[in-house]
Amino acid sequence: GCSQSTAPKESASAQNATSEKDISLDVAVEYTDHAAAFYYAQGKNLFSGTGIKINDVKVYASGVGVAAAFTKGGFDVSYMCLVPAIFTYANGGVPIKIIAGTHKNGYGLIVNSAKIQELSDLEKTGIKIANGPEGTSTDFLQKLLIENKNIDSEKIMSNTVRMNAAKQLMALRSGKVDAIFVPEHFATLAASFPSMKMLLKSTDIWPDMQGSVLVVTEELLKNQPETVEKLKEINKNSIQLMNENPQAAAEIVAQNLNINQMMVKEETQSPEANLEVTSEIAAASMNNLIMTPEISIEEVQAVIDKMYAMGYLTKSFDAKEIMAVD
Amino acid sequence: MSYISLENITTPYCLENVNLNIEAGEIMAVLGFTGAGKSTLLNVIAGLTEYKGDVYFNQNNMNHIRTERRNVGYLLQDIYLFPHLNTFDNIAFGLRAGGYPDDEIKEKIDSILHLLNITHLKKRYPKDLSGGEKQRVGLARSIIIEPKILLLDEPLSSLDPSTARSIRKELKVLQKRLNLTILYVTHDFAEAKELADRIVVITEGQIKQLGSVHDIFNLPAEEIREFISAAISV
Amino acid sequence: MSYISLENITTPYCLENVNLNIEAGEIMAVLGFTGAGKSTLLNVIAGLTEYKGDVYFNQNNMNHIRTERRNVGYLLQDIYLFPHLNTFDNIAFGLRAGGYPDDEIKEKIDSILHLLNITHLKKRYPKDLSGGEKQRVGLARSIIIEPKILLLDEPLSSLDPSTARSIRKELKVLQKRLNLTILYVTHDFAEAKELADRIVVITEGQIKQLGSVHDIFNLPAEEIREFISAAISV
Amino acid sequence: MIEDKGDQLEMKQNILKNNLLHLLPITLFLVLWEIAGQTAQTPLFPPLSKVIEAFGSLLRNGMFLKGIVASFGRVLIGYILGSSAGLFVGIIMGVNKTAERSLRPLISILFPIPTLGWLPLLMLWIGINEALPVALIFICAFFPVSYNTLTGIKEVKEEYIKAARTLGASSWYTLWHVILPMASPNIFTGLRLESGMVWRTVIAAEMFAIPTGIGALLMNAESLIRVDVIMVCLVVLSIMCSTFERFFLWLERRTTGAWR
Amino acid sequence: MIEDKGDQLEMKQNILKNNLLHLLPITLFLVLWEIAGQTAQTPLFPPLSKVIEAFGSLLRNGMFLKGIVASFGRVLIGYILGSSAGLFVGIIMGVNKTAERSLRPLISILFPIPTLGWLPLLMLWIGINEALPVALIFICAFFPVSYNTLTGIKEVKEEYIKAARTLGASSWYTLWHVILPMASPNIFTGLRLESGMVWRTVIAAEMFAIPTGIGALLMNAESLIRVDVIMVCLVVLSIMCSTFERFFLWLERRTTGAWR
Ligand SMILES: Nc1ncnc2c1ncn2[C@@H]1O[C@H](COP(=O)(O)OP(=O)(O)OP(=O)(O)O)[C@@H](O)[C@H]1O
Ligand SMILES: Nc1ncnc2c1ncn2[C@@H]1O[C@H](COP(=O)(O)OP(=O)(O)OP(=O)(O)O)[C@@H](O)[C@H]1O
Ligand SMILES: [Mg+2]
Ligand SMILES: [Mg+2]
């Protein structure tokens, strides 16, 4: 199963010692279409041809969940947002390497248009904003937004409550909050609710910010460099195929998100959160992502520096430490 | 008519049709076994228990006058000094409740402390007083409000003989000085004999005999003969 | 050599260079003011306090023998019956700790309950015993383990005279029957006189006089004269 | 005889009157609740009847009982482990000066930390799994029980120990037959007070971190705006907590009632 | 004289020895922590020095102090309101039989509900704003304080009241000058016990619902995997809680110490 309560498994390298051919990997992904590259690769059986066996997939409500889980080990590979990946390495001390990007952009601020028309409305008293836990990309973006648009940080932050994306949607729908900051596909889904609209996309805050990245443990990189190469290759192929056939990709992604919905419901204690994803929503959502395996060290360094400046990290570091791209 | 008059007093648990007259300035001892109704009788006079019948003080019907307005000094069976107040404040309690000014209170208390020889206990809390000391403080507390009637429920029961003797003397002096009417409950016939003008003997909620010390000693009524002889032999 | 021998005993707070010999089967009374060191002396013998010097029982050095192996019956100054055990279980405590079988325990206890006239208290807890009853239970508890030496720290201090008298008698009988060597602490000279073969007087941690009752009464040492006359007058 | 009968009748009337008087206010409250709920017509304040209905349907739905059982199991395991460990450490500290001196300063720093404060740390150390609420409850029970055990042992007067030793009891025998029984009132008080606290703790852990149990049910009901379900959960919690506490009160009375 | 000097010296040595013995274990613990942290080299178990460092930088960062102040303010307001209301209701129930009979059954149902259980209900009724933690703390303080006040009043023997009345005191005067002072030990005990509990409650509310205060700091530190920050928060919490409790202990001693 995909519950989180399993003990750390034997690492891939240990298993490799016994069988050269079949390399089995444990993977962690976020429950968003940010992980489209993975879902698509799995759906199209891109892994099996290369001798890589996906042993266990764990789906987390947010990158913060992936980060916390990483500290206890048990994964070899993860598709996660860049921001949590950085503090998993810096704060959690987990030796990971970014081996590729998966997409840029992909976050949005959705508001109840009955209450909020423009950004300055967020400062009003009585307005409730929801965002993911501290350290999620959306949290990072919210802080950036405050900085860029010169909004009253004090007012906004004390109006902000923390919850996972599924709950944010429920809260928005039931009127308990008036604005939410969520990653895609939740952003597009939320904007499709009656009287809700997407006020801002992440591109409006940080154009073409690096979204999610493909991460492996240092151990895997050291012991199985060829496996890592294969993973990169699969990622590249998967993204290329999706870009060529967006409609087919949307269907596979929508299907995967709906399958995983049950486990995420359980993890997020939200059995009521019926957030069925149609392939239309998935397609519209993926439209908001620029899917590419490319990732630039400068871009990552910029995020690291910004995170340090905003207090997420106790010290800055060289992006090269965490990158293993060609 | 007498100073205190009880007419047809009946209480839920104990007294039955009690009639009793007590003269002004008299000390009346109340004798009787445990559970006879002695404390209940005092409670009726003080208005601390329900009763049927009539209570008159100086010919005024007191039935609807509440305890705090009856102006009766009452030393309860176990004294019940307020544990959170020291000697001075315990004695001052009634005066303060009555709204006396502070300097007058201080004056009155100093004189009663002196009278009862307990000036040195002024600052002590009840927990640090011996049984005899508590008794004196309790007495001071109940007479400082200058009641006309004083009810004493076995005030000397827990004291050694010599202390009891000296308090009895002080009591006589006080009674004369303040012209108090006293009801004095005791188990001890000798005590009653020494203090009282008249004795009333109660058993099972009824008055069995009432008379001078001499009368009761020499001519006890049939049903209390046994009681009297037991009380004397102690 | 004597049955109990103390040589040059010094304790941190109290005793100074005490030497004392007690014969087998003797009752020795220990007299002295409050704080003189009487209880401390008994604690040394029982091994309940630190000391310098030597303690011999029947010529065996006991210095390194722990209390529980010294086989000394000790009735502590305030008895200290275990509050969570009833009379039977309190008395049985030592036997059970010694691993005796249940039926033997029952037999022994029944006989001592009978001897001390407390069979009816068997099931009661200490909180429901009077002072005198507690004293008897404590005595039973300390002698049922059949010690050769019995230490009694003011065992009759809190009792009324008539109860004290009857326990003293029982104690004499017991002592004869079990051939006990007894150290008996008391404030009361009359008590010492009635019970003891010899008396030792301690003040300020030192033995001031040791002798027969007669000697001490008639020829008290200079520094204890005042003490003896005070003790007699009580 | 006639008078006796009259008395009996009067007594019965009194009993009736008193009981009715006792029941009246709560009945009034329930009736008012129903009326107010019916009038308000908002899901935020459901009438009593809806709450009872919700209770019925929850009972039929396995989830609810499963939630209760899950919470109960966690409380039981965590509490048994935590209080056993607390007893053990308390006893060690009580009989051994060095142990006391070593552990006391530590405990006096850790004891006042609100149990829930540990949650973020444990989430990182343990992860989100069944061990998490159990560990929290362990902490919740451990400190007070060890502290009360220590206090209980320290309060046993030395003279009782001396008496035991003169009666030939070894240190071990004395510990088991004198010190611990005499410390038991204190120990039981600690156990009883904590028995309520552990429920607070498990609820919190379930509200936050663990997606099963009554706490999770409560949170789910909150996001579904099912006030009726929340109210059912609260009543059930009230019953569970007070039963738990009463059990310990009963145990306390049973074991130490005779001699105190 | 020479002997005296020797004694003094010995005494000093003893004092030193005892204090060192007291400090030794905690020092050892801190040193071990540092070494273990340095060796482990994982942010999940930071060495002492890093925690102290974190404390320093948190202090420089206004957020931390602001969080503490926010929590403290909520505790203070909620506690003052809740315990005043508790006192008031407790007194009403204590002096008025009808009030007692009406309220007691209600309170005996509501009291055992773990305070946090109210959170979901209050989130719906009040919404997520400053009133939420205050309301929670209010509940946390209200029930035990009213219960202890009632108990305290009931435990005042009727004879004291009778004595007061024979001395001419009105019911009102008796309430203020006899009943309440004599009930105060019980009342203070309730206040003191709750003073620790309210911290647990505010932390929980902040962890869950309200995005400011120490509880929120703790949760943010958890999601950012900042164990050093979590540890600083826990130590600060420990100090706050025990200071709060000690204050009430001091108050209790000061007001009732003389006569008990
Ligand atoms: N409220 C009550 N409920 C039941 N019985 C009562 C109540 N008040 C008084 N009694 C009973 O009335 C009887 C008389 O009580 P009272 O206190 O007057 O006796 P007493 O003569 O003062 O005895 P004592 O010498 O022991 O003080 C007792 O049997 C007592 O049990
Ligand atoms: N552990 C201790 N610490 C300090 N002083 C002690 C200690 N043990 C005994 N003492 C002192 O030793 C002296 C003798 O005490 P002990 O109990 O032997 O007196 P006692 O003769 O039995 O007095 P009492 O008649 O009051 O029982 C007392 O002054 C006491 O204060
Ligand atoms: Mg009476
Ligand atoms: Mg002594």
TrEMBL record, chains B, C:
Q: Which GO terms describe its cellular component?
A: membrane
Which UniProt keywords are present, listed alphabetically?
Answer: ATP-binding, Cell membrane, Ion transport, Iron, Iron transport, Membrane, Nucleotide-binding, Transport
InterPro entries, per database record: AAA+_ATPase, ABC_SmlMolc_Importer, ABC_transporter-like_ATP-bd, ABC_transporter-like_CS, ABC_transpr_FbpC, P-loop_NTPase
Name the source's superkingdom.
Bacteria
- Residues in ABC transporter domain copies: 4-229
Quote one Gene Ontology molecular function term: ATP hydrolysis activity
Q: Kindly give the Gene3D superfamilies that the UniProt entry links to this protein.
A: P-loop containing nucleotide triphosphate hydrolases
Record protein name field: ABC transporter
| High-level lineage | Bacteria, Bacillati, Bacillota, Clostridia, Peptostreptococcales
Automatic annotation (TrEMBL), chains D, E:
Question: Subcellular location, in the record's words?
Answer: Cell membrane
Cited InterPro entries: MetI-like, MetI-like_sf
Q: Which domain of life is it from?
A: Bacteria
Q: What's in the keyword line of the UniProt record?
A: Cell membrane, Membrane, Transmembrane, Transmembrane helix, Transport
Task: Quote any Pfam family the record assigns.
Answer: BPD_transp_1
Establish whether keyword Membrane is in the entry. Answer: yes
* Gene Ontology cellular component annotations, sorted alphabetically: plasma membrane
Query: Locate the ABC transmembrane type-1 domain: which residues?
Result: 68-245
Q: How does it sit in the membrane?
A: Multi-pass membrane protein
Q: Which PROSITE patterns does the UniProt record give?
A: ABC_TM1
GO BP terms, alphabetized:
alkanesulfonate transmembrane transport
Where does the protein principally reside? membrane
**Membrane spanning residue stretches:** 20-40, 68-94, 106-126, 132-150, 197-217, 229-251
Q: Which family does it belong to?
A: Belongs to the binding-protein-dependent transport system permease family.
What protein name does the entry list? NitT/TauT family transport system permease protein
Q: Which organism is it from?
A: Acidaminobacter hydrogenoformans DSM 2784
